[in-house]
Amino acid sequence: MFNTLTDLIGLRIDDSRMIEFIEKNGFKYPKKPFISNRSTDTTYWVENKKLGIDLLFSARTYLDNYPLIPGDKKGIYVPVLGRARWYNNKSNTIFPQGLDFNHDFESLKLKLGEPTLKSSDISPVWLNDDGSESFYRWSICLDEGKDIFWGLEFTDDQTINDFTLGLEYKNPLFYLYDEWVYEDVDRFLQWKNFNKTSYLMFLQWAIERDLIKTTDSTAEAIRQVKAGAAPVTDWVSALDRGFILSSDFAAERPFIKAYINNLSGHDILYNRDVSYAFLNSNELKQNYSGEAATQQLNAVIYDEANYAIVKSLIDNRLAEYKSHRFSRSKQLQPA
Questions:
Q1: Mean pLDDT in residue range 140-169
Q2: Residue 87 has pLDDT above 60, yes or no
Q3: Averaged pLDDT, 185-206
Q4: Where residue 335 falls among pLDDT bands split at 50, 70, 90?
Q5: For residue 121, what are the contacts with CB-CB under 8 A and spacing of at least 6?
Q6: DSSP string, 229-287
Q7: Among 170, 172, 196, 198, which Cα is nearest to 185's?
Q8: Cα–Cα distances in Å, from 114 out to 111, 118, 149, 168, 195?
Q9: Pairing of strands 174-175, 148-155
Q10: DSSP 148
Q11: CA 119 to chain centre
Q12: Residue-level pLDDT at 134
């Protein structure tokens, strides 16, 4: 079963090989196999309780090898098999390295090495009340060219929660524009709003400090931005996608993820910081995402003076994170 599913990972739901596998093994083919961009969900599970296997179909993988697949109507996308998950082994699947659900933590480490992720790596809020880790995960590359990984999760009840096989997991830090709803870089460049301005300033800061990975397609844009000869939007155009991943950064990823997505456990958030920096009243700051505050923030222009404010703000937060992981940091207070 493991090898069979390996060959199916990344195939679209309506591929004949996928349909044959679903029908042959007692899964139920979904009545609505395609996903609309009007839906809040971009994935769905197909379950088989008799086998103890769930299949996750994903329309958005955020992987270059698996771009969005348009359906036969506008706003409709075709999902691919993104992951298989075993929560028991009723299927008698042979897992790599002879592993099964009866292995304990020490035997897993002997075979697989140290876990590749623990709960606190995501955020301290995932720790148990006594400070212990709530889970450990291993993720092992099976086919780099196809972005296929397998792994397992070991939980604090000292058991293996599940085995997984699927595409490498990617989740954007933030969006500049969204191809899911047919936005593109040309439309993005025309927008005038604070969300755009604040994220572009963050990216300019990261480029100037050599924190952004250089690729063949972005190298020249990065050089020009660092030299002050081009706006950061040139890098966005060269990137040629609307979402930003943690893997786009070459360094300081823990800080960037914690600050952008408020994952430090100490309620320090870039979006709020940068909004407070430009709002001129206590009332607006207390509701910085409200209509009145948004109107004022959208009027903030991207110039050297405003960028200097944001640059200093991020530098200070980076210094705090390196020193104490925001544990002694204070939120910027309304004036």
A1: 98
A2: yes
A3: 98
A4: low
A5: none
A6: SS-THHHHHHHTSSEE-GGGBSS-HHHHHHHHHT-SSS---HHHHHHHHH--SHHHHHT
A7: 196
A8: 9, 10, 16, 19, 39
A9: unpaired
A10: E
A11: 16
A12: 96
Contact between residue 37 and residue 181 where contact means Cβ atoms under 8 Å apart: yes
Both tokens of 178, joined, read 């969204």
The conformation of residue 109, written as its DSSP 8-state character, comes to H
H helix intervals, 57-179: 105-112, 119-122
Averaged confidence pLDDT in the chain = 96
* Residue 93, C-beta contacts closer than 8 angstroms, at least 6 positions apart: 1, 2, 53, 86, 163
Q: What is the CB-side half-sphere exposure of residue 275 using CA atoms within 13 A?
A: 26
* Nearest of 162, 154, 164 to residue 117 by alpha carbon: 154
Q: Extract the tokens encoding 316.
A: 């200070």
pTM for this model (two decimals):
0.93
Rounded to an integer, what distance in angstroms lies between the CA atom of residue 98 and that of residue 53?
18
